[in-house]
Amino acid sequence: MKNTTSIGIMLFYAVGLAAGCLITNCPRGGKRGLHSYMKKLAEEKMALAQVPLQCARCGPEGEGYCMGPSICCGPQLGCLLASPATLNQCAGSVLPPQSPNSPAPTCYMPDGYGVCSTDGVCCNSESCRIDPTCEVDPDHNVCNVWTEPKNMAL
């Protein structure tokens, strides 16, 4: 009886030790491979942050650019908010968050910073407001500026 109990206890511990080897959700390369995977992800995000903003064209004859899911602005057009055409053309469009250091002409919105989308109009992805300090060069397109690289922490 004593022998059977000892064998049972040893078998229980052996199964417990072996179960640790059967974990299937480890990252590629094991636990140590996780750091290099996270570093690669951060590098990819950094590269994406330096790609020029690509805004969808919108408005009559494609004269404007989508500033948000229901906002279309252009130098000759001004801004169209929630018009039927804008809702179809700009669905899913979102401007990245802006800061005073952004390369695009920035302006102040009550909930943060926005972009001067046309003369006298400041927009973010959700709304626009009149801002007399916004002056946009007609040859300048807010959507052709580089987005600001973000610091990625590992």
From TrEMBL:
The chain crosses the membrane at residues 6-26. It comes from the Eukaryota. SUPFAM superfamilies: Neurophysin II. GO terms for cellular component: extracellular space; secretory granule. Gene3D superfamilies: Neurohypophysial hormone domain. GO terms for molecular function: neurohypophyseal hormone activity. The keyword Signal applies. Pfam families: Hormone_4, Hormone_5. Keywords: Disulfide bond, Membrane, Signal, Transmembrane, Transmembrane helix. Belongs to the vasopressin/oxytocin family. This is Arginine vasopressin-like peptide. It comes from Nilaparvata lugens.
